[in-house]
Amino acid sequence: MLVLLPACTLGPNYQRPPVDLPNAYRGATAVDMPAPSVGDLAWWELFQDPALQELIRTALAANHDLQIAVTRILQAEAQVTVARSQLFPTVNANVAAPYVGFAGAQGNRPPNVPRDAFAPLGGASVSWELDLWGRLRRATESARADLLATEEARRGVVTTLVAQVAQAYFDLRSLDAILEISRQTLRSRRQALDLMQARYEQGLSPLMDVRQAEALLQEAARTVPDVERRIEQTENAINLLLAKSPGPVPRGRTLVEQITIPAAPAGVPSDLLTRRPDIRQAEAQMMAANAQIGAVKAQLFPTVMITGFAGGGGTVVSGQTFGPFGLFTALPTVTLPIFNAGRLVAQVDLAEARTREAMIRYQQAIDGAVSEVADALVEVRKREEVRQEQEKLVAALQDASSLANNRYTGGVTNYLEVLDTETRLFGSELTLVQAQLDNAVAVIQLYRSLGGGWTALETASAQ
What we know:
This protein is α+β, with helices and mostly antiparallel strands. The chain has 2 domains: 5-87 and 132-300 and 343-462, Up-down Bundle (Outer membrane efflux proteins (OEP)); 89-130 and 303-336, Outer membrane efflux proteins (OEP), CATH 2.20.200. Helix content is 60%, strand content 12%. The protein is built from 10 helices and 6 strands, in the order αααββββααααββααα. The protein has helices spanning 43-46, 50-62, 64-85, 135-201, 207-241, 272-275, 277-297, 343-409, 415-449, 454-462; strands at residues 90-96, 99-101, 116-118, 121-130, 303-317, 320-335. Strands 1, 2, 3, 4, 5 and 6 form a 6-stranded antiparallel β-sheet that branches. α2 packs across α4 (135-201) and α8 packs antiparallel against α9 (415-449). The longest helix is centred in the middle third of the chain and has 67 residues, at 135-201. The chain is elongated and about 135 Å long. The two termini are 44 Å apart. The model has no long low-confidence stretch (mean pLDDT 85).
């Protein structure tokens, strides 16, 4: 019987279903295809700022969401042990000491009934369900797949956490750049106002020029406290990811020095099946649902349970001792479902429907991943183009501002031209910082959409 047990497992064995995958991502160039994917890089290879690396390491060690994911793995491991334990016999120790006594006179007791009886007994009981149809084995298989799904969920948290910390840090460095630009602009405009005030006092400039210079100064001045507020709030957000109290965050490289890779190759879509944690999690959930089909199908067939007891004891009846003696019982029980109003068949239908749902969710996860990568590719490419054009615009406005100031000093034009060019230059410099940030964040999103981050972490942990 034990030899034949593995051959009597009901339900379909898991096979990965065929998936619909394109040969290449939309937007991928011919150069990208043979190149190694950016998703294969370790996060410390992509983010080379030592300050950022330390923040990510701290987050991976202390983040609350990641710790919750770890506890869910422990719960799933316990569920595997619970499911697997049902494959083996259950042995319990039993001790009993029943006492029966009759009250009243001797004549009130029935004939041949002792005055009292005491029968201490001890031994071990055994119960074991023979897994003839594989119900318990399929339940264990399902629990192991659930464990795999929770492990993939933790890896998904790692990937998201690395991206969140990096993006928040880049936001912080962009705000630092904006604050520096604002302060430099504020200093230069204060000097320009002092010069304009002196020219007015000497009768060389009208009062309107002084007021316009004051307007330029206040425009830069109002930007500084707003950026300082955003910097402090961003620092608090980073510390929350690190499970720390609000406080300052150490800085490293500037924003333009963060990601130095010249291009962001994506690889081929088939790599997502093994790299994206959410796809792997969806497949594990599909495996668990598939195993449940066999577990519920087995309930349609007879259940064989073997119970037994072995022990010893004695008996004291009306002061007379009998024993000691040994006891042994064995009770095989066969339970065959006959009528349950279609409940067991409905459970099979339910398990099959859940498996079909899991298969659809698996394909949905793949389609979503491919779409995310395609979106990230065009985001990286177009954000880079915007950044380059914005740099050209800033360079042109810097030259125009210098010319406007020279023309005004030489008396060729009025201060309105200086006001216009200075205002446009300040706004363009701030827009350039945002373009640099958008470019860096686009690479982060591509890295996350490719499932980058957790594979390198697992390798490092194993070593």
